């Protein structure tokens, strides 16, 4: 696999990059969150996920409140270098609802 | 699994919602793209993926140029109803580089 350095990544006009979080063992997609440069730096150096909370407008260490941390297996960028895929070993559910994954609602159109 | 109707989804200020595309057979994460209401409607009705291209500013039927379509297995929303997970059966590589997935670059910090 190719490698890329963090300074080559493209953050958007708000300084954020979307990060897909995937379970490294089950391959289940767990959540989508956003990172700024600081949260990415902390994620790579501590090997636990940090995000930027757009609703609370603050740095967010995943698991700091819930105890459900995500140990980082690998951080992968896409071809456009504007999206990240973070493969993790979670120590508990990703979702604040207690679901293993945040993706648990089938989308349907109204008949 | 719960169900949710499309009109309950939250599109952002530009009328878009991020859509993670995952291979329904291998569980590999293939790409992240964006949908507006029209591309989501087409995706659900035709069972092939349609996106909104932010760079070209136009509706984008995945595979129309490359021949690499994505047949839709299921469309799932997350707990915040502001992100989609599209599980697909791809007929070819997701990436314009010819890679099966757009995620093929390990992110590293400079020493």
Identify the overall geometry of chain A. globular
Across the major sheet of chain A, the strand order is 3-2-7-6
This entry's quaternary arrangement is: homodimer
Q: What composes the largest sheet of chain A?
A: 4 strands, mixed
Strand content of chain A: 35-45%
Distance between the termini of chain A: 45 Å
Rg of chain A, nearest Å: 14 Å
Average of the residue pLDDT scores of chain A? 96
As a percent range, the share of helical residues of chain A equals under 10%
Chain pair with largest interface: A-B, 45 and 45 residues
Low-confidence stretches of chain A: none
Secondary-structure element series of chain A:
EEEHEEEEE
User: Number of helical segments of chain A?
Assistant: 1
- Tally of strands of chain A: 8
3D architecture notes:
- The structure is a homodimer of 111-residue chains.
- Chain A has 111 residues and is mainly beta.
- Helix content of chain A is 9%, strand content 43%.
- Chain A has one helix and eight strands.
- Chain A has one helix at 37-46; strands spanning 2-5, 17-23, 29-35, 50-53, 58-61, 70-78, 84-90, 103-108.
- Chain A has a four-stranded mixed β-sheet, covered by helices on one side. The first copy, chain A, has a two-stranded antiparallel ribbon with strand order 4-5.
- In chain A, strand 4 and strand 5 (58-61) form a beta hairpin.
- Chain A is globular and about 40 Å long.
- The termini of chain A are far apart.
- The relative contact order of chain A is 0.22.
- At the A-B interface, strand 1, strand 2, strand 3, helix 1 and strand 6 of A face strand 1, strand 2, strand 3, helix 1 and strand 6 of B.
- Strand 1 of chain A pairs parallel with strand 8 (103-108) of chain B.
């Amino acid at each position: 696999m190719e490698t890329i350095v963090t300074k080559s990544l493209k953050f958007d006009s708000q300084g954020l990059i979307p990060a897909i979080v995937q379970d490294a063992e089950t391959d289940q997609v767990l959540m989508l969150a956003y990172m700024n440069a600081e949260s990415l730096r902390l994620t790579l150096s501590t090997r636990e996920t940090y995000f930027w909370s757009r609703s609370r407008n603050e740095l967010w260490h995943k698991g700091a409140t819930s105890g459900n941390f995500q140990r980082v297996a690998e951080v992968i960028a896409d071809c456009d270098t504007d999206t990240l895929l973070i493969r993790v070993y979670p120590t508990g559910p990703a979702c604040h609802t207690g679901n293993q994954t945040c993706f648990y609602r089938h989308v349907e159109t109204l008949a």
